[in-house]
C-alpha cells in the first residue's frame, strides 16, 4: 500500500482527531452491533481483568490512543507502575497526556522517541499493544515488532489484541473514500519471529467481531 | 467535570499584591506582574490574564462582573492583556476541574472584598496548605498560552523585552551548548521547549522534564520534532531511569533555582543517576534561590512571591558533579550574578 495518494493509499490522518469523542470513535469503531461507548464500557474492564502484568516498573502501551488502558493500569495498582504510551498520532498523544490523570506515572511519546530511549538503555518490564498492530503500515510493522522486542527486558510479557487473520489498515481508495483495508500481512508470523506465544484468549463475540484474540507473548532469547 | 455551556462563573481568582509580609528567615520578592482570573459564561469560555504595573495595595478591591462572553473590570488599573478561548480545550478543562468548584451564575456580580471569595476558592481546591507563607507555588508556571509561558520562562529584566531576551539569550546559550554530545539530552525545566527545539534541530534527541502540565503540552507542539522530543514529569523520569535509561548529557537552564527546597537534593540525585560518569551537565542560575511560594499580605490577599531558602545550589551540585567551568551571563542581558556552569558527573 502506498503512503502517497493513489489507488489505495495509507491514511495515517484518520488517527488525528480534534476531540476526545471523535478519537474514541476511531479507537473503538462501532462494530458487532455495539456503539463505541458500549464497546468502551464492556471491553475495557474485560481486558483489565486479563492483562497480567508486573505490578511495578515501566510498562509500554503501544498505540496508546487517548490512554484508555493506560489510565486503568496506572489506577489499578498502588502507584508503583509507570506507563509509557506510544502513538504516532500527535493529537492522541496530547489527549492521552490529559486524560490519564496521573502525569507522575504516564507520558505519551512518538515511536521514534521510544527508539531513541531504547538506544539510551531503556528497558520496560512489560508491554501491551491493543488493537494497534493491525493498523500499522506494512512497511513499518517489522521495525515496530523489533522495537518492541528491543524495548522489553528478557522474559517481560507482551500482550497483543488483534483480529487474527485480518488487518484493518486505514486507507483511502481512488475516490478518496476512507476504508479499513486488509493488506493480508501476517502480523502473527512477524511476532513469532521474535516472540513466543504463551497463551491466547478468544475475545467473546459480544465484545467485538469474531476472530479477536488476546495473546500473551514473551521475547525469544537472542 | 466542566463541560462547554455549563452555567459557570468565577473559577480562580489570584491576586498578586505588591505589599508583602516579611517572614524571618525568608526573603520575599514582590511579584506584581501576574493576575489570573478564570471566568466562564454559557456561550463563551475565557481565561483572562491581566497585567498591572500598579501595586495592588493601591487598588481598591475590584468588583468583577461576569457577563455572557465578556469580563468587565471597573477598575482601570487592572489592564486586561490577553483573552484566550478555552471552551473546547481539554487542557483547560483538565486544569480547572482539578482545582476549583463551579459557583455563581454567568451574570453574577462579585462585589467588595475579594478576600473571602479567594479563601473560599482556595479551600475548595487543592491549594490549601497549612502554612501558605512557605507553601511551594508551582502554579506560577501553569500558563495557558505561549506569550504568557514565555514570560514565565524568561522574566524580562530591566531594559529588555521577553522577546529580545529570548532571542539574544537563546543564541548565546546555543553557541555554548554546541559542545553537548549527540544522543539523548535531558532538558530539566524544559518549559515550552526554547532550547529543546534548536537541540533537536542539531540532530540530538531531547527528553524534556517540567512540572508544569501546560508547558509540557505546549512544548511538544512548539518543538515540532515528535520523533526527537518528549516532555514528562520528574516522576516519570525517575521511572525511566529505574528502567535503565541514561542520557548523554543534560541542561538545567533557569531551573534549579526554582525547585522546592525539599525536592532539590532528590532531583540532583536523580540527575546523577540519569547521567553516566563524565557526562556533561550545564546549569544557568542566579546566585541566590528564587523559590515560588504562596504569600499572604497584611491586607489578607493571597498571591505568590519568590523566596530564597538559603540553599546553595553550587554546593549541592558539587556533591555529585565536578565543576568544569563557568561563564557569567553578559551584561547586555542585565541579570547580574547569573552564571552558566558546566559540570561533569563524578564517577560512582
Biggest sheet record of chain B: 7 strands, mixed
Strand portion of chain A: 25-35%
The average pLDDT value of chain B, as a whole number, equals 65
Estimate the mean pLDDT confidence of chain A: 90
- Tell me the helix content of chain B: 25-40%
Radius of gyration of chain A: 16 Å
Question: What sequence of helices (H) and strands (E) makes up the elements of chain A?
Answer: EHHEHEHEHEHEEEHEE
Distance N to C terminus of chain B: 49 Å
Number of strands of chain A: 10
Strands of the widest sheet of chain B, in order across it, are: 11-10-9-12-13-17-16
What is the beta-strand fraction of chain B?
25-35%
Summing up helix and strand content along with how strands pair, one would put the structural category of chain B as alpha+beta
Number of strands of chain B: 17
Question: How many distinct helices of chain B?
Answer: 9
What overall form of chain A do the CA principal axes indicate? globular
Strand count, sense and barrel status of the largest sheet of chain A are: 7 strands, mixed
Regions of chain A with pLDDT < 50 over 5+ consecutive residues? none
- SSE string of chain B, helix = H, strand = E? EEEEEEEHEHHHEHEHEHEHEEEHEE
How far apart, in Å, are the first and last alpha carbons of chain A?
Answer: 31 Å
Derived structural class of chain A: alpha/beta
Explain this structure to me?
The complex is a heterodimer of chains A (222) and B (348). In chain A, 31% of the residues lie in helices and 25% in strands. Chain A is α/β, with parallel strands linked by helices and 222 residues long. The mean pLDDT of chain A is 90. Chain B has nine helices and 17 strands. Chain B has helices at 90-99, 115-124, 146-153, 162-177, 196-201, 213-223, 234-242, 261-274, 313-318; strands spanning 10-14, 27-29, 35-40, 45-51, 64-67, 70-72, 79-85, 109-110, 184-188, 205-209, 229-232, 249-253, 280-285, 291-296, 302-308, 321-328, 339-345. Chain B is globular. Chains A and B meet through helix 4, strand 4 and helix 5 of A and helix 1, helix 6, strand 11 and helix 7 of B.
Amino acid at each position: 500500500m502506498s503512503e502517497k495518494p493513489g489507488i489505495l493509499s495509507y491514511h495515517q490522518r484518520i488517527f488525528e482527531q480534534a476531540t476526545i469523542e471523535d478519537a474514541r470513535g476511531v479507537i473503538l469503531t462501532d462494530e458487532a452491533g455495539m456503539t463505541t461507548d458500549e464497546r468502551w464500557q464492556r471491553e475495557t474492564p474485560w481486558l483489565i481483568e486479563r492483562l497480567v502484568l508486573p505490578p511495578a516498573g515501566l510498562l509500554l502501551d503501544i498505540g496508546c490512543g487517548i490512554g484508555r488502558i493506560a489510565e486503568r493500569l496506572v489506577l489499578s495498582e498502588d502507584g508503583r507502575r509507570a506507563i509509557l504510551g506510544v502513538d504516532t498520532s500527535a493529537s492522541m498523544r496530547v489527549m492521552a497526556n490529559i486524560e490519564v490523570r496521573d502525569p507522575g506515572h504516564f507520558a505519551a511519546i512518538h515511536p521514534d522517541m521510544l527508539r531513541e530511549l531504547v538506544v539510551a538503555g531503556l528497558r520496560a518490564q512489560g508491554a501491551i499493544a491493543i488493537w494497534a498492530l493491525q493498523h500499522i503500515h506494512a512497511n513499518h510493522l517489522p521495525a515496530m515488532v523489533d522495537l518492541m522486542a528491543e524495548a522489553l527486558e528478557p522474559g517481560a510479557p507482551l500482550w497483543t489484541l488483534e483480529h487474527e487473520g485480518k488487518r484493518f489498515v486505514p486507507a483511502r481508495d481512488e475516490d478518496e473514500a476512507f476504508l479499513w483495508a486488509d493488506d493480508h500481512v501476517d502480523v502473527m508470523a512477524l511476532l513469532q519471529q521474535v516472540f513466543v506465544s504463551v497463551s491466547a484468549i478468544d475475545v467473546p463475540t459480544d465484545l467485538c467481531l469474531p476472530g479477536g484474540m488476546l495473546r500473551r507473548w514473551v521475547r525469544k532469547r537472542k | 467535570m466542566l463541560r462547554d455551556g455549563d452555567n459557570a462563573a468565577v473559577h480562580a481568582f489570584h491576586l498578586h499584591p505588591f505589599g508583602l509580609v516579611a517572614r524571618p528567615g525568608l526573603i520575599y520578592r514582590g511579584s506584581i506582574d501576574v493576575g489570573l482570573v478564570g471566568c466562564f459564561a454559557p456561550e463563551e469560555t475565557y481565561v483572562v490574564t491581566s497585567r498591572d504595573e500598579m501595586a495592588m495595595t493601591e487598588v481598591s478591591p475590584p468588583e468583577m462582573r461576569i457577563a455572557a462572553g465578556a469580563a468587565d473590570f471597573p477598575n482601570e488599573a487592572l489592564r486586561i492583556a490577553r483573552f484566550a478561548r478555552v471552551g473546547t480545550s481539554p487542557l483547560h478543562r483538565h486544569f480547572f476541574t482539578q482545582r476549583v468548584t463551579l459557583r455563581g451564575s454567568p451574570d453574577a456580580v462579585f462585589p467588595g472584598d475579594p478576600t473571602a471569595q479567594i479563601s473560599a476558592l482556595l479551600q475548595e481546591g487543592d491549594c490549601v496548605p497549612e502554612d501558605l507563607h512557605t507553601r511551594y507555588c508551582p502554579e506560577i508556571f501553569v500558563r495557558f498560552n505561549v506569550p504568557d509561558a514565555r514570560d514565565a520562562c524568561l522574566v524580562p529584566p530591566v531594559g529588555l523585552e521577553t522577546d529580545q531576551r529570548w532571542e539574544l539569550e537563546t543564541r548565546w546559550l546555543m553557541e555554548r551548548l554546541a559542545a553537548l554530545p549527540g544522543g539523548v539530552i535531558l532538558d530539566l525545566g524544559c518549559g515550552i521547549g526554547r532550547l529543546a527545539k534548536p537541540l533537536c534541530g542539531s540532530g540530538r534527541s531531547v527528553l524534556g522534564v517540567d512540572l508544569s502540565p501546560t508547558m509540557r503540552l505546549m512544548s511538544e507542539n512548539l518543538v515540532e520534532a515528535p520523533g526527537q522530543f518528549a516532555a514528562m514529569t520528574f516522576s516519570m523520569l525517575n521511572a525511566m531511569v529505574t528502567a535503565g535509561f541514561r542520557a548523554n548529557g543534560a541542561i538545567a537552564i533557569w531551573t534549579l533555582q526554582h525547585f522546592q527546597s525539599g525536592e532539590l537534593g532528590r532531583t540532583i540525585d536523580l540527575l546523577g543517576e540519569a547521567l553516566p560518569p563524565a557526562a556533561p551537565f550545564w546549569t544557568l542560575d542566579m546566585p541566590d534561590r528564587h523559590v515560588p511560594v504562596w504569600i499572604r499580605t497584611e491586607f489578607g490577599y493571597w498571591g505568590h512571591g519568590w523566596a530564597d531558602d538559603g540553599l546553595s545550589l553550587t554546593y549541592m551540585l558539587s556533591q555529585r558533579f565536578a565543576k568544569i567551568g563557568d561563564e557569567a551571563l553578559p551584561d547586555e542581558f542585565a541579570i547580574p550574578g547569573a552564571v552558566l556552569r558546566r559540570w561533569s558527573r563524578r564517577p560512582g
